[in-house]
């Protein structure tokens, strides 16, 4: 196959993103990142508390909070998906 034929067979892909969908995606991404940072902080603080027997109860509660917050992660993704699904679908060029 010649180079000229190869170029003619190539298909270019053009993606069009709705501005509102991008804004929603970015906002949920920020919420997800903040949630992940907080999870890390709870588990780190809980781990440090376990070095001191007087703080063991606080450490346990921090682990419980971190574990509960891990359940928020899929809720954030599901919320984003449902929010994006409610947007009107962009007009198609096809």
UniProtKB/TrEMBL annotation:
<dbReference type="Pfam" id="PF14145">
    <property type="entry name" value="YrhK"/>
</dbReference>
<protein>
    <submittedName>
        <fullName>YrhK-like protein</fullName>
    </submittedName>
</protein>
<keyword id="KW-0472">Membrane</keyword>
<feature type="domain" description="YrhK">
    <location>
        <begin position="26"/>
        <end position="81"/>
    </location>
</feature>
<keyword id="KW-0812">Transmembrane</keyword>
<keyword id="KW-1133">Transmembrane helix</keyword>
<dbReference type="InterPro" id="IPR025424">
    <property type="entry name" value="YrhK_domain"/>
</dbReference>
<feature type="transmembrane region" description="Helical">
    <location>
        <begin position="39"/>
        <end position="64"/>
    </location>
</feature>
């Amino acid at each position: 196959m010649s180079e000229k034929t190869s170029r003619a067979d190539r298909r270019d892909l053009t993606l069009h993103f709705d501005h509102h969908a991008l804004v929603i995606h970015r906002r949920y991404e920020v919420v997800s990142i903040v949630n992940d940072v907080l999870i890390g902080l709870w588990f780190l603080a809980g781990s440090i508390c376990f070095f001191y027997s007087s703080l063991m109860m606080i450490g346990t509660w921090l682990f419980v909070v971190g574990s509960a917050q891990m359940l928020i992660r899929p809720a954030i993704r599901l919320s984003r998906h449902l929010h994006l699904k409610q947007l009107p679908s962009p007009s198609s060029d096809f």
